[in-house]
Structure formats: C-alpha cells, structure tokens
Design goal:
63% of the residues lie in helices and 2% in strands. Helix 6 packs antiparallel against helix 7 and helix 7 (165-179) packs antiparallel against helix 8 (186-200). The two termini are 19 Å apart. It is mostly helical and 348 residues long. It has a three-stranded antiparallel sheet. It has two domains: 20-244, Fic-like fold; 253-343, Winged helix-like DNA-binding domain superfamily/Winged helix DNA-binding domain (Arc Repressor Mutant, subunit A). The protein has 15 helices and three strands.
C-alpha cells in the first residue's frame, strides 16, 4: 500500500513536468479502453480504434471497435464531470450515464443507462451453478445509494484517520462488482470508476486494465474471495500491486512518447520551415492522435486541406508517418512508432 501511494505521488510530479500532458493522456485513454474491453472478450487493437476514430468508418475493422470507442467516450465524459465537481459528481446518475455511453448502439435490449430489473448471476449456465449471485434487482437502487455515499465521502477535520485513496478504490470496485447493477458492461463501468475516483482527488489518470488483463484469473479469484469469504486483505494487496505497476508503466510510456516527440522535432528542424507551419505543428498532434486523416488535420490545426495534405506528405517522406493502403476516402497516416509503443504488452 505504501509503494502504491508513493507511485501515485511520483506520477503527479512526472505529469506536471510534461509539456503537454493532455496529449499523452489521450493516447493512454485509448490504450486503456482497448485493454479494459479485451478483458470482456472484445477483439480490437489500439491502431484499429484510432483508425475508426480518425475516419468515422468501420470498413475493414472488427465490429468491436464500436464498443471500444464507446468506452473512450464514457471515460472522457466521466473525467469532465469529476474535474468540474470533484467527488460530488460521483452519483448513481453519473454511473447510469457512463453505462449509457458505453452501451450506445451496441444492444438496445440491454437497457443502456438503466439498472437491471431482473436477477443476474456470474459464472455457470444457470443461477444454481453460478459462482456468485448479486443482490436481487429490487435491492440495486439502495445498494447503489450506499455506494454513492462512499464515493462522495471526503475527509473531515475531526476524522482521526483518513482512508487512503488506494484502499477506497479497492473497496469501491469490489462493492460495485458485487452489486453488478447492470445487465451487461459492469466490469468496464467498474474500471472507469477507478480512474474517476483518482481524478476526483486531483490525481492524474491511472490505467490498471493492462495489469488486470495480464492477471485476469487472479483478478477474478480475488474479487470472488471478497464476495464469498470476505478476504479483504488479499484483494487490497492485489489491487495495490495493480496500482503500483500500472503507475510505473504509465510513467515509462509517457517518457517514451516524449522521447519520440523529441526525435521527430529534431528530424523536422533540418527542413528549415516556419515555426508556425503545419509540418511543425503535426508531431505534437501525433503523440495524442497517432492515426490521422488529412481532413482531421485540417480541422484540428485550422489549416487548409492542401496544407494538411502537404504536411502529412512531408512527414511521410521523413519516415515519421506511413500512409495506409485503404480506399482513398478512408485513407489515413499512421505514426507507427507510437502505435508500436501503445500496442506493446504490459510488463508482467
């Protein structure tokens, strides 16, 4: 637990030193969306998600990119809310809204944004063979109101002891997964809440889905240990390790992205272009959006379409970008160095 909190402190310092932390966070958001969704059995990679986001077309891409982009939208929506209001934004209504974003257009039969009205179970072909049976549907509202109070809790001056944020996250995640308030999407919503809890306390985002995916059986076993045998120590130890290792990975990835950006800028400096040219602006954009189209560059950088096209071509000539071979209307340019880093497996 001590190491996990020390890691969070180091992350705060490291993030503050970044020249543009939002761009780094944007890439890490999308990697988290891919990994968290893969825990639930989806099949899409970071480059496929980014291609779908850049073109708005899923042509030639796995259907799961739609689900994964929904995760990004839910995460970004939640982060905006908690950064505006702090812990008080963590309400049952917000949780329903997160679920609505997550499940939008996926399966209307799953009641997006609504708590379940029927009994569900975890594991097994029927309720009698289940590994765990959550509370009955009529208890979900009250259970979620209790969880809401816990999520909104802030330290008071008269408190003798403040529960550390990592322990609070572990408790909240276990409780949410125990309630299992939705028909589908509980795991993903539960993992989004972890990022929001940290943001509500002023911490940079921490993305633990990679660790959980690498240790998926242990993740499930430790959750079941809490639900069935009240083995809190084992669960909190596992969760603290997840936070510690995930912070280390986030810091390393951010440093790598900054190093890539530095190398690109050095390569471009030899072209002797104006500092405000689209070519000079593109590298920073590519750290947060390593798959782009000419139309996207035109909109984001506020340049003409020919200028955007020319800038992309110059970076392609420099070896920074690779042009995809898809249809002309969905053609994209890929910063493969960034994609390779984001797709690299989580250290075990």
């Amino acid at each position: 637990m001590t190491r996990a909190h020390e890691a969070l402190g180091t992350l705060k310092i490291s993030t503050a030193r970044l020249p543009n932390p939002d761009l780094v966070t944007r890439s890490l958001d999308r990697r988290e969306a891919v990994r968290s969704s893969q825990i639930e059995g989806t099949n899409s990679d970071v480059d496929e998600l980014l291609t779908y986001e850049a073109t708005g077309s899923d042509e030639g891409l796995p259907p799961d990119v739609v689900v994964t982009l929904n995760y990004v939208k839910a995460l970004e929506y939640g982060l905006k809310k908690v950064r505006e209001r702090g812990p008080q934004a963590m309400t049952s209504d917000l949780i329903k809204e997160l679920h609505g974003h997550l499940m939008q257009g996926v399966d209307d039969q799953r009641n997006p944004g609504q708590f379940r009205e029927n009994q569900n179970w975890i594991g097994g072909f029927n309720i009698y063979q289940a590994r765990f049976v959550p509370p009955p549907a009529e208890c979900v509202d009250q259970c979620m109101r209790d969880l809401e109070l816990f999520l909104q809790e802030t330290p008071r001056e008269e408190d003798m002891y403040e529960v550390p944020i990592v322990i609070r996250m572990a408790i909240a995640h276990a409780q949410f997964e125990t309630i299992h308030p939705f028909v589908d999407g509980n795991g993903r919503v539960g993992r989004i809440l972890l990022t929001l809890m940290l943001a509500a306390e002023g911490y940079p985002p921490v993305y633990i889905a990679g660790f959980l995916k690498n240790n998926q059986q242990m993740y499930y076993d430790n959750l079941a240990g809490v639900q069935l045998k009240e083995k809190w120590s084992e669960w909190i130890s596992f969760f603290a390790a997840a936070v510690e290792e995930s912070v280390k990975e986030s810091i390393n990835t951010a440093n790598e992205l900054e190093a890539i950006l530095g190398r690109w800028r050095q390569m471009i400096s030899g072209l002797r272009l104006r500092s405000d040219s689209a070519v000079n602006k593109l590298p920073e954009l590519l750290i947060g959006s390593p798959v782009v189209s000419a139309r996207q560059v035109e909109t984001i950088l506020g340049v003409s379409f020919p200028a955007a096209n020319n800038a992309l071509a110059r970076l392609e000539e420099s070896g920074i970008l690779v042009r995809t071979r898809g249809r002309q209307r969905n053609r994209t340019f890929v910063a493969q160095e960034v994609i390779k880093l984001l797709n690299s497996p989580t250290p075990r």
